[in-house]
UniProtKB/TrEMBL annotation:
<dbReference type="InterPro" id="IPR050504">
    <property type="entry name" value="IgSF_BTN/MOG"/>
</dbReference>
<feature type="coiled-coil region">
    <location>
        <begin position="168"/>
        <end position="258"/>
    </location>
</feature>
<dbReference type="InterPro" id="IPR007110">
    <property type="entry name" value="Ig-like_dom"/>
</dbReference>
<keyword id="KW-0325">Glycoprotein</keyword>
<dbReference type="InterPro" id="IPR013106">
    <property type="entry name" value="Ig_V-set"/>
</dbReference>
<feature type="domain" description="Ig-like">
    <location>
        <begin position="29"/>
        <end position="119"/>
    </location>
</feature>
<keyword id="KW-0393">Immunoglobulin domain</keyword>
<keyword id="KW-0175">Coiled coil</keyword>
<dbReference type="InterPro" id="IPR003006">
    <property type="entry name" value="Ig/MHC_CS"/>
</dbReference>
<keyword id="KW-1015">Disulfide bond</keyword>
<dbReference type="GO" id="GO:0050863">
    <property type="term" value="P:regulation of T cell activation"/>
</dbReference>
<dbReference type="InterPro" id="IPR036179">
    <property type="entry name" value="Ig-like_dom_sf"/>
</dbReference>
<dbReference type="Pfam" id="PF07686">
    <property type="entry name" value="V-set"/>
</dbReference>
<dbReference type="GO" id="GO:1903037">
    <property type="term" value="P:regulation of leukocyte cell-cell adhesion"/>
</dbReference>
<dbReference type="InterPro" id="IPR013783">
    <property type="entry name" value="Ig-like_fold"/>
</dbReference>
<dbReference type="GO" id="GO:0009897">
    <property type="term" value="C:external side of plasma membrane"/>
</dbReference>
<dbReference type="InterPro" id="IPR003599">
    <property type="entry name" value="Ig_sub"/>
</dbReference>
Amino acid sequence: MKTSKVKMSESRVHNQFKLTSEDHVEAVGEEVTLPCHLSPDTSAVAMTIRWFKRTECIYLYKNGQVTERSGYEGRVSLITQELERGNVSLRLIDFRRSDRGVYICQVIHGEQKEEAAVGLRVRRVLESGSWYLQHETQEDKLKREASAGELELKMEKELKEILREKMMKQLKEKLDDMTQEVREKERLLDDMTQEVREKERLLEEKNQIMEQREKLLEEKDNQLEEKDKQLKERDIQLEALRKNLQDKNSQVENFRVLLQEKDLQLEDRNHRLGEKDRLLEERQTTKGK
């Protein structure tokens, strides 16, 4: 069994309609159309369309969905572009001799249900559609309804399966998207982790450099303290030398003053010696005379 969806735009539907068909058609070749039309021309897009072969529902169109019975899958179809004009004919391809017989078209809209039958023959008439409907037993009618109900039930199951598959596909796509998103976030997290590790490594290197610099600074501070200490000691030494120099200068000044006094004394003594020498010379001169 096959379920598909017919895409058609809805249009206005008349409240009352009838079905018209031919009493029988003859199969020529591998394709045949079983005619059936709404009268007056009325859109059948929003209607339920059932096609039976005697009591077996072989084709169901409902709510835009299509279900075909096994054995007819891919062989029967409506002319979807003609539904707007009320054409509900059934196209049958790959014709087989077992396809001969009476086909019934049933159209349901709201509370209204209409039927028309057409006989499909090969060369000679097996039985006409109108004759079949006139002589159809109540049991056959019930069989047809049961067959249609069975096909509708299968349609619902297939629609549920399609819906489930669609939901599963959406869930899978969503899961794939989420998985892809998680993988992308994991990749980003790995990149960020790698970046953090690299920054931690660089930070560790910088910390080591800082420790080395701090150590060098500490050594330089110690050296500066030692130099300050040496400078203070030198200042003390220079101050002592300055005081010593001042003392020496004082002593030199004292010696200079003393020398000046000695020079004066010596000059005075020399002067007195000169006077004595002059007096002595005068005495000697006087004695010589």
